[in-house]
Amino acid sequence: MARDHGQRSVYTYSGWEIDLTRREVRLRGAHVPLGGRAFDIIAALAAADGQLVTKEELLARIWSGVYVEEIALRVHIAAIRKAFGADRGMLETAVGRGYRLLGSWEAREPADTARVVLEPVRTLAPPIATNLPTATSGLIGRAAIIAHVQELLSAYRVITLTGPGGIGKTVLALEAARAVVPTLDGDCVFVELASISDPKLVPSAVARTLNLKLDGEETSADAVARTLANRKMLLVLDNCEHVVDAVAPFAETVVSRCPSITILTTSRETLRIDGEHVCRVPPLDAPSADEADPDTSSPAVELFLVRAKALGVVFSAEEDLTAIAAICRRLDGIPLAIEFAAARAVTLGPPKVAASLDDRFNVLTTGRRTALPRHRTLRATLDWSYELLPDIEARVLCRLAVFAKEFSLEAAIFVTGEDAAGTVTDNLASLAAKSLIAVDLRGDSPHYRLLDTTRVYAMEKLRGSGEYQQAARRLAEFYVQLFTRADKASRSTPQGEWLSIYAPHIDNVRAGLDWAFSSGGDTRIGVALMAAAVPLWVQASMLAECRERVQLALANLDGAGEESARLRMELSAALGWSLMYGVGRAREAGPAWTRVLELAEQLDDRDYRLRALWALCIDQFNNGEFQKALELAQRFADLAATSDDAIELMMADRLFATTLHYLGDQSGARHHIDRVITQLAVVPQRTPIIRFSFDVRVSTHYFQARILWLQGLADQALRIVARNIEEGRASGHALTFCSVLGQGACPLAYFSGDLDAAELYCAALLDHTERHPIRLWHLWARGFKGMLMAKRGDIEGGLATLRSALDGAGEARFLPRFLLPLGELAAGLGQAGQVGEGLGVVDDALARCEAREERWFVAELLRIKGELILREAGRSSASDAEECFMQSLELAQQQGALFWELRSSLNLARLRIDKDRMAEARAVVLSVYEKFTEGFEIADLRAARSLLALPSV
Predict the structure, then answer these.
(1) What pLDDT is stored for residue 367 in this prediction?
(2) Which domain holds residue 931?
(3) Are 157 and 262 in a shared domain?
(4) What's CA 245's distance to the chain center, in Å?
(5) Residue 709: pLDDT above 60?
(6) Are the C-beta atoms of 687 and 697 separated by less than 8 Å?
(7) Among 629-633, 875-879, 923-927, 941-945, which is the least confidently predicted range?
(8) Cα dihedral 575, 578, 583, 584 sign
(9) Is 229 left (phi over 0), alpha (psi -120 to 50) or beta?
């Protein structure tokens, strides 16, 4: 009889832990990869307390309501034993009966059962998503292995489908993934790696496919794993063999740190990592040679007939079927080779194809003699297919091998160098009919791609012909032209739409850059291509790769002419953006932007002068030079005044509003932000981001909310916040959404006293900055969480969290956004009895604000200082505290900051009540309260009403 463990959810024995809450198996604290159903089995065995659990019980419990063969249970038992490693003996088999878990397992509560993410926050998270392409046809002869892979996906965390090229690993992985999506309870994402030439780009390829905006962070396995964290997902990594040395540690990192992610890879070479289960993909069954009447219903023959029928030919004659059976047998049941042969049989006839294949295999001399037979089979089939091509088709096929990924008809015409567009179009159609090129007919125009196996083969032929350099040059030149047009389009196209058009080209751009900066390339073209394609990296927030490639281009930029100066200007601007939002690199951005401004003025380039002035103004915010920021804003405005571009005029007012807000002039800030709001009516609903880094509409609204709040218009501010959250999320721009939550939603909810809303917004920001690692905003969110903990009564825990976040921010804690957490740290220290330390924090903040003329938060800091003085010495220092409250009140009045005025009046009134000066207390609060026209349900106005309701005597 099993012991009654009640609600306890962690079983431990000899360093092992089975955690039912987190659904993890751990050995001495380290996570041990195990699939979902395998975990369910081990959980059932642990709960049985050493008693036998029969096979029937496990099948009924784990596969409730679904009939499966016993082999499915054995697959998962094998996975558990593999996970147990040297301790596999803990899992005992009672032959023919069932299983038991040996050992003295103890049950206890988990050390920390607190939920990390609040339930309401889930509504702000992205919905479950998949990018799996829709199946265009059913797989033939693969039902059994698809079912087997489904079982493996619930038993293991890393599964590798392996086999020779053309065996069908990719289509099998896709079909298996589609089959598990309905029961997955998570995302299912397919990442194609065939186009990646540099192993270092594996994490970038995954991040880009998952739409992870790793702003300011190097794109590494660690960064991706931190971002994915607790997300549930099946991650399919396709065509890994050429970058297997990078995929292996990447997969190992992800599965060890992300307990709810399973990885399915396809590769000719296994990963050889802990926890990997290797599944070898078999060929299709083909008729055997000794059959008197060949089995024409075999999967290999069925595939041949289906492929031929799709091309408009039906083979039914006995002679044809006998030849088809021989072809499929000769091709070892390799699906891709069979498709090649079927395409040829449509024009040549099966008997002729069979005879020519026999000739080819009888004199097989190509390929490595040490290669696996099926590798040599496919190579021989490719040789045979290629040699049957007309010269022009063979030449087109080889030149197209320079494309790393899909390409358009326009790109194909340019790169192949054929004069007549119609000729290339006809050649593409013919190559597609022969299964040598795949065609995607989505959208308004077709896109083409070479299968990985075919591309590798064609590239070998291209290099052997001596035409590689010319084809690669034309590839780079094409994308220089394409992205020169794209840069102009980025000024009027919303980011999401722009990315959907141009992001698919990034692998081809990388291929062009890799050639250009190689020993046989042309660095001039490489520099021009990088300069033209900068918006691609910036809009996709791939700043680390952008910085690396831009620095390479700048190092190879020679010459002093106008063209070189323009390229240097464009590249320096890209470097400035990547440094401005890079981890610990913001202080390096200023010199880059100064160089951009110098070159823009030298070249009389108005657009880049505006970009540089905008960025330098932001840089002054970061450095605390607000008067310099105001001067730069004026220069920007003077230049924008010569334009009829509505967005430029809006951004000038936006800079003024932001600068004046931080300087403490809320009335001036309101004037400029209202001008922006008026102009928003004449710009598109979704505005471009590339020129000035943020979404104009969204960023205007969160600053509008801040200004209105300080002016005492709380209801308007909170309505804007509610809309702004939806705008920010819809923008698709990670950095913009951080500011929506951190600049507007979080602080205003906190000031209103609605801690539930503040916690929801904080959790959303934490979740967002984990999925899109923007380090400084993540640290700010952690600090804000500490503020909420302290406000809820957990002073010690809140202060520890707040200190940790501020310490982690380093010099960035001097950014304007960190003044709020610094002020709350000082107040919390006072509540914890550490008044002296609290006064030190607030005095440092005040001195900093004085030195920088950063006055927007000074009234609140003075108010907090007054509270601390009262806590330190009581009534004996009441006059000093009263002086702080009076200074705060007067400064708030001067700034037009009615909210700060209200808070200071309440502190001053309470102090006067303590001195039995009730009439004066009521008078000071009433004089402020009467200025309000809305927002009467926020916490401070409720407190004011309560104070005014006190009896006069």
Answers:
(1) 35
(2) 862-953
(3) yes
(4) 23
(5) yes
(6) yes
(7) 875-879
(8) positive
(9) left
